[in-house]
Design goal:
371 residues, single chain, alpha+beta, 4-stranded antiparallel beta sheet, 2 domains
């Protein structure tokens, strides 16, 4: 099995085997667009379940509860005049977290006593904290500001590194795609968005960007001097780059998803670690979506932008026209040419064995070079 995978990866890298990912970009654009639209609709209709850190309010933690049933907490909160319907979550196996609207000191004391009585514990086992709406708004504004600054820096750095603003735009499109879909999943499942969740969002943006940069680096290497040759189009050489990095993208994603999946399903669901759940879902969804976007969205979108350039468009048209003429002259010739393979694009740019350093022949005892 391992040998077959290695052979498959080697064939992809050399071009002996190729998947036409770039050539079928409309299909991938349609898939990405439908999922993106669905995530946007979820965000607009369902909205995000913002944590208390963002909306403000009062939070109570009840320790050593018997079975951690949620209904007694709901009944205790509704008995306090002016308190809104609470959000109750289980932390671990014997701790409850109760969040409600902002309460004054008297209401806070009354609710602490009610919760203690509801679960048969001492009042000292009930802790309370308060988050003001001003602080929550400040956290929200800083989170949005951090995202905007991140995207701006990404665009600047990639433009400088690749010397091509189209690569920066394509990477930003992929990153925004990953972010919106991941946030849409949070709107769908209704889990709270906490500061830990925001950290997860920023982390997956970095992961998606890293994967995209690796593919773009190979695209740049393959397409250097593309207009000086008449064998392959820009899209075909970019498709070769995607195939060459496909195995790496899959392996990296699997290695990253397995531990995150363990944190999500074992740590969050089985052990009840709420904080782990907040960040693990963002990472789990983001890694999967980011892998898709780096392979099926970023590079095809880059090719779509580059083919709007006159030089690339004319070069592609010339190659396709030459292939059509060759097909007309020889019906047995491949209509679409041959898949792009590893090798020099322009004849003479690679010297083969002549590029190897010359070794001096050993001298004979009389000082003359041996024949």
């Amino acid at each position: 099995m391992a040998s077959r995978m290695a052979q498959w990866g080697n064939d992809l890298y050399l071009g002996r085997r190729s998947y036409d990912i770039v050539g079928r970009r409309r299909r991938w654009f349609m898939v990405a667009g439908v999922v993106f639209l669905a995530a946007t609709i979820l965000l607009l209709t369902l909205g995000l379940n913002r944590g208390i850190e963002f909306r403000g309010g009062s939070e109570f933690t009840v320790q050593a509860t018997d079975g951690a049933a949620q209904q007694p907490a709901i009944d205790a909160v509704t008995s306090i005049e002016g308190a809104e319907l609470p959000r109750v979550s289980v932390v671990g196996t014997d701790t409850l977290r109760v969040q409600t609207s902002q309460l004054d000191d008297t209401q806070t004391q009354e609710l602490a006593v009610a919760l203690a009585a509801a679960y048969g514990v001492d009042v000292s086992e009930v802790s309370s904290s308060f988050v003001g709406p001003t602080w929550g708004d400040d956290v929200t504004n800083k989170a949005i500001r951090a995202l905007v600054i991140f995207l701006a820096l990404v665009a600047l750095v990639m433009t400088i590194y690749f010397r091509d603003w189209r690569m920066a735009v394509s990477a930003i499109v992929a990153v925004v795609h990953d972010l919106v879909i991941t946030v849409g999943i949070y709107a769908l499942v209704g889990w709270e968005v906490t500061p830990a969740t925001v950290i997860g969002f920023l982390t997956i943006l970095g992961y998606s960007l890293y994967d995209t940069v690796v593919v773009f680096d190979k695209v740049r290497e393959n397409t250097q001097g593309v207009t000086d040759q008449r064998l392959y189009t820009y899209g075909e050489l970019s498709n070769l780059a995607v195939n060459q990095t496909l195995v790496r993208s899959i392996n990296t994603s699997v290695v990253a998803v397995l531990p995150v999946g363990s944190i999500l399903f074992i740590g969050a669901f089985l052990l009840g670690a709420g904080t782990l759940r907040d960040i693990a879902l963002a990472l789990f969804v983001g890694i999967i979506v980011g892998t898709y976007s780096s392979v099926f969205l970023a590079t095809p979108f880059l090719v779509w932008l580059r083919e709007k350039q006159d030089s690339i468009r004319n070069h592609t048209a010339d190659i396709l026209h030459a292939r059509a003429e060759a097909q007309a002259a020889d019906p047995d010739a491949p209509a679409q040419g041959v898949p792009a393979r590893v090798g020099a694009l322009v004849p003479g740019t690679h010297l083969g064995n002549r590029a190897q350093p010359k070794r001096r022949k050993p001298s004979r005892p009389d000082g003359r070079a041996s024949s």
